[in-house]
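Quiz preparation item.
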């Protein structure tokens, strides 16, 4: 089995650190996306309710 040079080992450690960093960033981005999608869903529901209220008020007059 070949041994790694110190430079190769440092590079491997750095690449693993970067993998962990970007994996964590991706996880956080997915969580933020889910939050924004839920907010968008709630706002669309509010718009539908307000449109229904407006239609009802127009029909009453």
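Solution:
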């Amino acid at each position: 089995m070949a041994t790694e040079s110190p430079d190769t080992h440092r590079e491997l450690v750095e690449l693993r650190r970067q993998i962990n960093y970007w994996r964590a960033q991706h996880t956080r981005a997915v969580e933020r996306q889910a939050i924004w999608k839920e907010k968008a869903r709630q706002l669309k529901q509010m718009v539908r309710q307000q449109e229904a209220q407006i239609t009802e008020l127009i029909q009453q007059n």
